[in-house]
Write a structure and sequence with these properties.
Elements lengths: L1 E6 L3 H17 L4 E6 L7 H6 L2 E5 L9 H11 L4 E6 L7 H4 L4 E4 L3 H19 L2 E6 L2 E6 L3 E7 L2 E6 L10 E5 L2 H8 L4 E5 L2 E4 L3 E5 L2 E4 L4 E2 L6 H12 L3
Length: about 240
């Protein structure tokens, strides 16, 4: 169950946003509960504790309960909640860094990018639950990220290679239509590295990285981009540092 919090002092806009979020989540096969408020002071601590995704107007009518103040309250309970700020004024954007906003959207731009940002937010939430969902033959398949070895571009498809974990994925390889760049944006936060235009690799399985290729712990060897090698190496070494 995904818990979504919406807050905007424009009731008409709030209802329109709620309808859009509901339609999108239904299209993704996601169970959800949406709470929508025009007054931030009415939002309880319990509701903030449950919140997975928050879409907040920055410039609410009451200064002491504006969107930034509400976001601070949210962060006190949920550091992992995905936060999207929505407003009419671009000058509020820098304030979003303070509370680790995921996206910042001007209301006038909402129609063109709303579903894209919702998809990215939903993928971020799912990845914190350690699964990556794909659609295969009209059915949703949730791939366990820790067993996802690497992705490869094959023609116009993306192939997902998984470690054998019986019974769900033993010996399986899934293919979907899509672009590796788009998927990389989702998976890089989980320790995946784009080593070549055709490969995205789970760094936990890498045993050796050189300009000649990347070697995985099961002996698989994949190509590495020569032009991007120094940048790739820096990202890998940074990931390997103790955290």
């Amino acid at each position: 169950m995904l818990h979504v919090l919406l807050c905007d002092d424009d009731e008409l806009f709030l209802n329109r946003m709620k309808s859009r979020v509901e339609a999108f989540l239904r299209s993704q096969g996601e169970g959800f509960e949406i709470l929508a408020y025009t007054d931030a002071s009415l939002i309880t601590d319990r509701e903030l504790t449950l919140c997975d995704l928050a879409l907040l107007d920055v410039d609410l009518a009451t200064p002491e309960d504006d969107g930034i103040a509400l976001a601070r309250r949210l962060r006190a309970f949920r550091q992992d909640a995905v936060l999207i700020f929505i407003t009419n004024f671009i000058e509020f954007a820098p304030a979003g860094y303070e509370v680790s906003a995921f996206r910042y959207v001007l209301k006038r731009d909402l129609e063109g990018i709303f579903n894209t940002y919702l998809r990215q937010a939903l993928n971020r939430i799912r990845l914190t639950r350690e699964v990556y969902p794909i659609w295969v033959d009209g059915k949703k398949v949730e791939l366990p990220v820790k067993y996802l070895e690497y992705l490869e571009v094959i023609g116009h498809n993306i192939a997902f290679f998984l470690r054998p974990i019986p019974p769900e994925t033993a010996g399986k390889r899934y293919q979907i239509r899509g672009t590796l760049s788009e998927i990389a944006q989702d998976l890089e936060v989980c320790g995946f590295l784009r080593v070549h235009k055709s490969y995205l690799v789970n760094m936990r399985f890498i045993t050796k990285l050189s300009s000649k290729g990347v070697v995985l712990d099961n002996g698989t060897v994949l190509r590495v981009s020569q032009m991007q090698y120094n940048e790739i190496k820096q990202k890998y070494l940074l990931w390997k540092q103790p955290r």
